[in-house]
Design a protein that fits this description.
Helix content: 10-25%
Distance between the termini: 65 Å
Oligomer: single chain
Number of helices: 5
Keywords: Membrane, Transmembrane, Transmembrane helix
Order of helices and strands: HEEEEEEEEEEEEEEEEHEEHHH
Transmembrane segments: 7-26
Number of domains: 1
Shape: globular
Structural class: alpha+beta
């Protein structure tokens, strides 16, 4: 009898595993944003439902929030925020939150780009040397730039994290991992990642009507500088401001803790670089800092 029960449980488990795998890898796409030749798509498991967006305006931001559910059971949400700056550049922030107890996979895609002309912003590994005050920062530069019509896109990486309360009561984000390897083919960039229960994921892109730098040598100069000076690169951008590594304390949880820090949000580094080598990129970072400071 016991053997029959064990066999039955094994069969049930195996069938549930097949069903779960099928739900995750049978997918469909939903268009979540479109501007001129650029389209953003969210590819999700076929049995998942992405609701119609609830749209709100917050200053320079237009926020589109959609619920994510499975057979009517809420799983979390997908939020797209479009920030339009005075220089004509749009920053698109995407935020996925898993409020359930079931992990799921998503793929966020950017369509309408020249995938063969992607210029990586990580031509070499980032400096692995630990900072005395901040420790090691495992994040890298943004993914890179790519032509899109007459303009250009700067694509950020994906940051999977969870909310965490430190011993002093400070609310921070604990980085689980950064996804920096994407698929670029057939006119699109595809960012695929898993979101564990109670975790969230952030990514972003900048859409400019013209190249971010006047010359490739100027772009290379900044990229190389950012690789070697981790405290001057803002790579985890969110609508609330850039998340940066916070100083280490006796609380071991600060080793992978990130937060919005006013001094870094002000982005004096971009101001300094824009004085000596003006560019759309530095101008955009400065304008974005101004928006963040008013929030």
């Amino acid at each position: 009898m016991a053997r029959k029960i064990i066999l039955l449980l094994f069969v049930v488990f195996f069938m549930a595993l097949i069903l779960f795998t099928g739900m995750m890898f049978m997918t469909n796409e939903t268009e979540v944003y479109s501007k001129e030749d650029i389209t953003l798509l969210a590819e999700k498991p076929a049995f998942f439902t992405l609701s119609d967006p609830t749209v709100t305006e917050e200053g320079a931001d237009v926020v589109n929030k959609r619920g994510l559910s499975l057979f009517g059971i809420p799983l979390g949400s997908y939020t797209l925020t479009e920030r339009t700056l005075d220089n004509g550049v749009s920053i698109i922030f995407e935020h996925v939150e898993n409020t359930s107890w079931m992990p799921f996979v998503l793929s966020l895609q950017t369509e309408g780009i020249d995938h063969a002309a992607v210029k990586t912003w990580n031509p070499a590994p980032v400096s692995g040397e630990a900072d005395p005050a901040f420790g090691s920062d495992p994040t890298s530069n943004p993914y890179g730039t790519v032509p899109a019509g007459e303009g250009e896109i700067l694509q950020g990486n994906v940051y999977v994290s969870r909310g965490l309360t430190l011993g002093n009561g400070e609310e921070v984000k604990e980085l689980r991992h950064e996804v920096s390897e994407f698929t670029a083919e057939e006119g699109r960039i595809e960012k695929s990642f898993w979101v564990s229960p109670k975790y969230q994921a952030d990514t972003w892109l900048m859409l400019s009507p013209e190249p971010f730098f006047a010359a490739e040598s100027e772009e290379d100069a900044w990229v190389n500088h950012a690789l070697e000076n981790r405290q001057e690169q803002l790579n985890w951008l969110t609508p609330a401001g850039p998340l940066v590594k916070i100083p280490l304390t006796d609380d071991l949880r600060t080793e992978l803790a990130y937060d919005v820090v006013d001094e870094r949000t002000n982005d004096s580094v971009s101001e300094k670089w824009n004085e000596s080598a003006p560019s759309i990129f530095f101008e955009t970072m400065i304008l974005n800092a101004e928006v963040n400071q008013t929030r």
